[in-house]
Specification:
52% of the residues lie in helices and 3% in strands. The chain has a two-stranded antiparallel sheet. It starts with a helix and ends in a 5-residue tail after the last helix. The N terminus is likely disordered.
């Protein structure tokens, strides 16, 4: 009797599966809720703030000139001249920030712009 009941249950299950297959596959439906634009902008703002907060120390101390402050630094040079009673002119004012540490924050204009970053 147990075999007969099991066989009957298998036939019923097979019939149900066949009926479901005859209707065709049904794709799951996704239902979206109400979209809150203000919350989306607020979340984007927070994400940008946190990413800048983590990257700003790296950007400020980024060493773009790896040979800076070494004896083989090719930028550690200068040319100067003095004409008559005028103040001497030299290229050291331009090359000194580059070869002193080689970091972005030490450059005259870039360093000031990096000052607005947090950290």
């Amino acid at each position: 009797m147990g075999v007969t009941v099991s066989a009957g249950a298998a036939l019923v299950a097979a019939g149900a599966a066949e009926a479901q297959a005859a209707q065709g596959p049904q794709a799951p439906r996704a239902q979206l809720g109400r979209t809150d634009i203000a919350a989306a902008f607020q979340g984007t703002g927070i994400a940008l703030e946190k990413s800048v907060q983590g990257l700003s120390p790296v950007v400020k101390t980024f060493k773009y000139h790896p040979l800076a402050a070494t004896p083989v630094d090719p930028v550690d040079n200068g040319v100067g001249t003095k004409i008559a009673d005028f103040k001497p002119i030299s290229t050291q004012a331009l090359t000194n920030p580059i070869h002193s540490t080689g970091q972005l924050r030490d450059l005259p204009l870039v360093g000031q712009l990096l000052g607005i970053l947090p950290g």
